[in-house]
Amino acid sequence: MELSQENPNAESSIVPYLNKIICGDSLEVMRKMPSESIDLMVTSPPYNLKNSTGNGMKAGTKTGRWANNPLQNGYAHHDDEMPHDKYVEWQRACLTEVMRLLKDDGAIFYNHKRRVQGGIMQDRDDIVNGFPVRQIIIWKRAGGFNFNPGYFVPSYEVIYLICKPKFKLAPKKNGYTDVWEFPQEMKNKHPAPFPIGLPHRCIESTTAQIILDPFSGSGTTALVAKQLGRNYIGIDISPEYCETAQARINGTETISLKENSLFTWQTDDNLYEGKSH
Ligand SMILES: C[S@@+](CC[C@H](N)C(=O)[O-])C[C@H]1O[C@@H](n2cnc3c(N)ncnc32)[C@H](O)[C@@H]1O
User: Fold this and answer.
1) Ligand 1 — pocket residues by CB below 6 A?
2) Of 150, 159, 167, 184, which has fewest CB within 10 angstroms of its CB?
3) Pocket test for ligand 1, best of 215, 216, 220, 226 (most atoms within 8 A of CB)
4) CB of 84 closer than 8 Å to CB of 76
5) In angstroms, rounded to a whole number, what is the distance separating the alpha carbons of residues 203 and 223?
6) By mean pLDDT, which of 39-53, 98-112, 236-250 is the weakest?
7) What domains are defined for the chain?
8) pLDDT value for 142
9) What value does the CA radius of gyration of the chain take, rounded to a whole number of Å?
10) What atom in ligand 1 is closest to the CA of residue 47?
């Protein structure tokens, strides 16, 4: 695990960040935040889907199973198409920064997805190698149709639980086990939102008071943190998503239906049902 030094220009207090949705680059914003100031991170980063090696969701796919994918154009301000090594480097830098921000009893719930690239499973261990992964939670999603004869229909994502040494769950919450079942979110105009239940499970399984989501999108983690009476910090690069997140938090926007609602789609090397990253 790389070590991150605190930025000498970092704020001395976390208070100015509390209960805000901040529009900006997550690494840049996190570098200004004080060390050991956060209890929990819950996030789902961009999955870098558009760098597919197969006939997957490449830029400009206008026909076929990906044509109506909500992520066809990437995110509003992120194209989701980095060279793989740069993507891994970026995600490791983000995790390194979060480790600096976490208190010594803090933890990270880092949601990601395995996929098949060139016929071989690509797990995400290259991102988390060296970080103190304590557990891998399986998020069982709804099933789908299998267009690929080469492998079974993928029906789960993973959540890496990465912990500082003193992290403990809230009393009796270990009974949730390490397989969680939530249907994917269908009623949110963001292209890849969390279902509300997922950040809810993560947050209420802990006693964390300050929760950070550095890729907050439509603000689901922040919304749930607020509902549970905790403090949130959400960061997203997209002004539109930040606006949506703020409106959800303020209660001025109920979740609207997806414009491109595709419940199941697949390529030769990917299968994503309902939610895609
Ligand atoms: C998988 S989505 C998160 C969705 C979120 N969990 C929700 O419930 O809406 C990933 C998010 O990362 C954001 N993003 C991409 N690059 C970023 C960056 N450099 N800094 C901050 N946010 C970024 C995208 O705009 C996108 O909203």
Assistant:
1) 25-26, 44-46, 75, 77-78, 190, 192-194, 215-218, 220, 235-238, 241, 277
2) 150
3) 215
4) no
5) 11
6) 39-53
7) 12-271 (3.40.50.150)
8) 80
9) 18
10) 1
CA distances from 208 to 34, 103, 155, 239, 245 (A): 17, 10, 30, 27, 21
236 CA distance to ligand 1 centroid (A)? 5
Residue with CA at minimum distance from ligand 1 atom 18 = 25
Q: Which amino acid is at 190?
A: H
The tens digit of pLDDT for each residue in 63-76 reads: 454 455 566 667 88
Q: What is the mean pLDDT of residues 92-105?
A: 98
d(CA 231, CA 203): 11
- pLDDT at position 25 is 98
Closest ligand 1 atom, CA of 188? 9
State the DSSP string of 104-138: EEEEEEEEE--EEETTEEE-SHHHHTTS-EEEEEE
Q: What is d(CA 117, CA 49) in angstroms, rounded to the nearest whole number? A: 11
Give pLDDT tens digits for 128-145.
Answer: 999 999 999 999 998 665
Q: CA separation (Å) from 102 to 74, 106, 124, 261?
A: 30, 5, 22, 37
Residue 236 is inside which H or E element, if any? strand 231-236
Strand partners, 135: 161
Beta strand 231-236 with 38-43 is unpaired
- Separation between Cα atoms, residue 177 and residue 169, nearest integer Å: 12
